Amino acid sequence: MKANPPLSEAPVVLEQKDDGRHAVITPAQLREELFEPRDEKLASKGAIKPDQSGGEIESNAATASLARLASKAVADEDWERAKAALERALKIAPSAASIWRQLAYCYYQTGDYAQAFAQVQRALSLSAFDEGGSVLNQELIGLINSQVEKIDSESVRD
Amino acid sequence: MAVFTALYWAWLDRRVADTFATSRWSLPAKVYARPLELYVRDNLTLERLEAELRELGYLKVEEVMNRGQYSVHDETLIFYARGFSYWDAPEETRTVRVVFEKSKLSSIYDLDSEDSIDLMRLDPVLIGKIHPRRFEDRELLSFGSLPTNFVNVLVAVEDQKFFVHNGIDFSAIARAMVNNFRAKRYKQGASTLTQQLVKNFYLSSERTLKRKITEIFMALSLEISHSKEEILEVYTNEVFLGQDGNRAIHGFGLASLFYFGKPLDEISVPQIATLVGMVKGPSIYDPRRHPKASSKRRNVVLDVMRSAGLISLSEADIYKQQPILLSQTMNASKRKHPAFMSLVHRQLQRDYSYKDLNESGLSIFTTLDWHFQRHAEKMIPEILEAIEVDRSKTGFQAAAVVADPRNGEILALVGDRNPRLNGFNRAIDAIRPIGSVIKPFVYAYALSQPERYSLVSRLNDRKIEWTDPKGVVWEPKNYDGKEYGSVTILEALTRSLNLSVIALGFELGLKQIREYLVSLGVESKFTAVPSMLLGSVEMSPLQLTELYTPLANDGFRVPLQSIKNVSTKTQQKITRYGLEMRKVMEVETAHLVRHALMRVASIGTARSLKTSLPKAQPLAGKTGTSNDNRDSWFVGFGGDKLGVTWVGRDDNSGTGLTGGSGALPLWAAIMSGTIVKPLSTNYSSKINISNIELLSSSMIPASCPNGELVPIHEESWIRQSKGCDSALERGRFAPVPFQKNKIRRSMFDRIKGYFD
């Protein structure tokens, strides 16, 4: 694999660990937040805004159908199928930060932390159109970093 | 004797059972273009959809009745989709209505379930196969997928008692013996389908008594151990039905595609008759080489069908009148798109063995947009010829790569002006100095330090001399030989000034720039010398395309890929090549450079794009020319496409072309074959759009007409002037104040204005 920037360069959330919030989020909770948003406000996070150019707004039905496909695959823990559906959705709506986060979560689940992190960064780069997505981004980064740290400490023990 | 017979029987039985079970054939790998996605979108035309259906062998009819047909009435296209078992989300067989409005796909509707369809994929276009030099090819069909009328015709013609005999048809043998005796020569055979299969599978073609007896024993044995359905299925897939160069056409599934361009369940009755007639002699009844013999044989089959009660007398008469319509598309066994296929092959060889690729019937799903690829292949020789005529020169070569910068998928790739030639692949293997297309990255390095540099920072465009450690003096010049004095980064990049970029390079540090280029992913070997700033770095068109992905993709570098996934012959996923990316620059840096490159394509060295591609505006681009005009480069991008073109000569002699006169018109001609999404004019929230008076690099009030709207990073300090005339009133330096959306909106209009 090509060299990825070390994860320590990330806008690290670990500093915020003290507030307790990022320390307690579990993968299952985050999965729920990303894939099964309960309230409307959450559901619209990262949704495409009309002021974005390129007509992405019109393809919402197509991306929604892929999001359903992805959610089902995630429920089955079929991560490759979920990734395939999400990457297909991103071809239609490349500026949808919420889909980048879902993809990051799937890469996190398959242990590809560098890629997962790059995808959260992609969501971060779209923050201008991603109202309310920043908490989720931080939670994802926290989750990824906790795994990376675990691996680091284990390799030290070896 | 009895013991011997019993042993022989047991041995034969074993042999038949073993090989029959494992004798699943070697199958070449199939390589597919990317499937067309249908959803409400503005970048798909009815013509493009129709082209896809035609390429897939769908038949245009007045009214759609059967699978594989389509109709067009005004802006409505109806088609009976074949469906495809994609590993991730299978597509069903259904009748679909697609409505276009003002050449934009506006609705998709399932006529069977009466529901609207949010998203669907067509079946994928086959662009090639991977196979040994000489090979057997087939399209496997299961018994259940065989059309009933095909089975009826096959049995009626080849083996009327197939479903009742036990491997041998004794009454047919008796009949044949009588007839042959009367004719005093061998005229009629009585082999059952089972015997024919045994003969093809296990035995030589000699006509000896011993072989005949073995054949009978084996046929009987096969019938005991296998069902009629299994035997017919294997027969249908095994039978030899023609030769296509070094490819042997086996089985009715492939024969139907090869001769008629359609699957077996979509061909007409006379077409079925033609194929079944070929069993008797695949080469003498080949409809392409011997159309008369073929149609005569077909008519014999039609007569057999009539006497078997499969068709009426009048139907037989009508069918006999029909010409045999052959497909043109499947005719060419020549390899298509060799440059792209060789890239696919290189990637596959890394991950799969020779045996996997050549024998196990893998399905390889690539990223190629075949329609666009074909256009690119057509444009390259056309444009090169035009340039050669214009310049009274010959021997130009070219290469082109177009990819989606957001995911790295290669849409088209050409490596030779003769796109059929599978030779030196310049898109991948021609490593050449990239000239001025390096410059945006030198500026990116400056702009990645917003506290030091903005797009309106001033550079000193003056002649310099540089003596290398060996004492060689280097005296670079601007392309027009002039000096421009104090210029902004924006202006220097727009005009591709050499002296400015060298001045900047010395300011930034050559070593640091080299390190930055390496961090962006430049893999070529190069040293930190000043000529690096003018593009002495050597790269292939493919590498250069990848280098540009972060500029077109908010700072993220995406490796280019040609394969999305590989599945088994039953469409089980084996490998998925997922998205990979790496953040190599801040989104702000990417947006600032993108802005400058949009200016290049509107009023700078690439301004001719305004007239050649009016609909794709705004676009961004950069021309490049190497020393002595040896290499002409152009790199350009819109929202969803990034392309690199190169024009030069293999012997590395001068072309007399600049990037603007060679590679740029080629790029424009290639891009005219697709719909390029205009670039987004959204900027990161850390970027403020400011009205700048470029002569003094001062920010002036938004209402002043003598300014230009320039994106400025919020950490950059700009001189602020209260009036329009910044020369009268030099303001103090301060960070750029945040501008309201109104200005952002007018920014968009202004950029649009470049192109009016």
Concise description?
With 158 residues, chain A is mostly helical.
User: Strand pairing plus helix content of chain B: what structural class?
Assistant: alpha+beta
Low-confidence stretches of chain A: 1-22, 39-58
In which range does the helix fraction of chain A lie?
A: 55-70%
Mean pLDDT of chain A: 76
Percent of residues in helices of chain B comes to 25-40%
Q: Report on the biggest sheet of chain B.
A: 6 strands, mixed
Q: How many β strands of chain B by DSSP?
A: 34
Helix-strand string of chain A: HHHHHHHH
Outline type of chain A: globular
CA gyration radius of chain A, whole angstroms: 16 Å
Radius of gyration of chain B: 34 Å
- Beta-strand percentage of chain B? 15-25%
Q: If strands are numbered along the chain, what order do they take across the biggest sheet of chain B?
A: 3-4-5-6-7-8
- Mean of residue pLDDT values of chain B: 90
Total helices of chain B: the number is 24
The strand count of chain A comes to 0
Using CB atoms under 8 Å apart, which protein chain pair has the greatest interface? A-B, 39 and 36 residues
Query: What gap, in angstroms, lies between the N and C termini of chain B?
Result: 98 Å
What this model shows, in words?
The complex is a heterodimer of chains A (158) and B (756). Chain A has 158 residues and is an all-alpha fold. In chain A, 61% of the residues lie in helices and 0% in strands. In chain B, a hairpin with a 2-residue loop joins strand 12 (240-244) and strand 13. Chain B has a six-stranded mixed sheet with strand order 3-4-5-6-7-8, with helices on one face. Chain B has a five-stranded mixed sheet with strand order 10-1-14-24-25. The longest helix of chain B has 22 residues, at 370-391. Chain B contains 24 helices and 34 strands. With 756 residues, chain B is an alpha+beta fold. The chains are: A mainly alpha (158), B alpha+beta (756). At the A-B interface, helix 4, helix 5 and helix 7 of A face strand 26 of B.
